[in-house]
Amino acid sequence: MVSIVIPVHNRKKFTRNCLLSLERQTVHEHNIIVVDDGSTDGTEEMLEQEFPEVTIIKGNGNLFWTAAVNLGIRHALDAGAEYVMTMNNDTIAAVDFMEKMLYWSAKEPYALLGALEIDFDTLKPYYGGEITHKIWNTSRYLLEELDEKDWKGLHEVSLFPGRGLLVPRAIFDVIGLFEEKKLPHYMADYDFTVMARRNSFKVYCNYDAHLFTYPEEGGDHKIRNKKSLKNYYNHLFTIKGGGNLRNFTIYTLRNSPAGLVPMHLLKGYIQRIFGYLIH
């Protein structure tokens, strides 16, 4: 059985559509845990009325992504889940999404599996994993390298985000949960998958499993799309800023080879400080 953990804070419409897509799956070997972190838009009432089978765990409004996900994972593991999937509420699962994930997890039972992300608005593939160069700390995006005929099956990657990430229980037993104290919102998912690889677990993007996403709905996308001094500060220093320098520093210190840390930090600082102004 797979326990799907979905952290939410408001955005009731997205949560409803996400859960409806999971109801429509061709296989139903999963249960759902929603961690409602202080929603004020009627999310709790909607869940109770429309999705009574969903387990609701309440937060205090200050959990952010990582602590909320960990809260749901602990509940799932305590209940005996053999697999946990982390999923954001601004996603829509294709009808055979779980079927394709379970098919490949049976063949790779100790691997982490992410899904091919499809832009909901354009219906074009948006993210299919990346390979990170250990020395130069640069990423090659697989979608840009693979021929369309190869957009199928599993492709090994260096890291993966937590949207639709299937994690076997054995991995939690070895490396623990996501790092919620040092990385409370962004980069905890990448950190987790990199740590899993360091412990000899493989990470794949499952190109057969499609997850529709809304790229522009991400918190940092909104910050970067509305350029201002306030948003520039938010991008670099606030907890929901994708360019948060503190998070990047912690991530680098935890995951870069010791001798390469200074170069990786310098390169990353330049990208974050000037990237906001350029893009």
UniProtKB/TrEMBL annotation:
InterPro entries: Glyco_trans_2-like (IPR001173), Nucleotide-diphossugar_trans (IPR029044). It comes from the Bacteria. Residues 3-144 form the Glycosyltransferase 2-like domain. Gene3D superfamilies: Spore Coat Polysaccharide Biosynthesis Protein SpsA, Chain A. Signal peptide: none annotated. This is Glycosyltransferase family 2 protein. It comes from Fulvivirga marina. The lineage of its organism: Bacteria, Pseudomonadati, Bacteroidota, Cytophagia, Cytophagales.
